Amino acid sequence: MDDSTKPIDDATPIDDISGLKLPRDKVYTLKEIYVYEANNIALATLKYLSATPSKKIAPFSYAWLLELHKEMLGDVWEWAAGRCRQVELTIGIKAYQIPMELKKLCDDIAFWQANKTFDIYETATRIHHRAVQIHPFLNGNGRWSRMLANIYLKQNGSMPVKWQEDLLSSVNPKRDAYIEALKLADSGDYTRLIEMHRITY
Ligand SMILES: Nc1ncnc2c1ncn2[C@@H]1O[C@H](COP(=O)(O)OP(=O)(O)O)[C@@H](O)[C@H]1O
Ligand SMILES: [Mg+2]
Fold first, then answer.
1. Which residue, by CA, sits nearest to atom 5 of ligand 1?
2. What total number of domains does the chain contain?
3. The domain that contains 80 carries what CATH number?
4. Closest residue (by CA) to atom 20 of ligand 1?
């Protein structure tokens, strides 16, 4: 596969297009699908990041975590958007554990907020990292996790991080450092990933 067709950090090759909602009179390249996804995600970005999102519209509840993914990708993917995957992937926890782990994440977010356990950058970082470690969906986990972190930052008075989601992986200057920071966070060291959440340009 030509690398230029890959999105910023496409770890999940799209090998099942059965749920694709686009007109079926043609075959789409990954890059074309990515553009449709980006247009869908832009609507969610407008909804959540154009002004401070209230707790009412972004409650960080279990149902909302799934709903957000559906808002981001539901115009493009029929059944895969907003639904927990039922198959194992190379990244992420076992499928049967996903609902429980997502619920735990919601409870932890509420606890961190109530107890001011971490500052907002570290909280956003931990939300992002846990969300992507769980990897609840067939695809879009990276973009959804980064959106979650950005909504949290915006809700708490900080600027969203510019991940340059509009760039393809082959030209995204942040990709390598980002993946490295995620791996470091896997080993318990959040410093590099936290740094990335502080940088708003
Ligand atoms: N070793 C890794 N290589 C690539 N992505 C990784 C790795 N570890 C974790 N990830 C996360 O997985 C995401 C890719 O998952 P995927 O579901 O395809 O999301 P998206 O479609 O939004 O890129 C990356 O954006 C990143 O957040
Ligand atoms: Mg992907």
1. 11
2. 1
3. 1.10.3290.10
4. 140
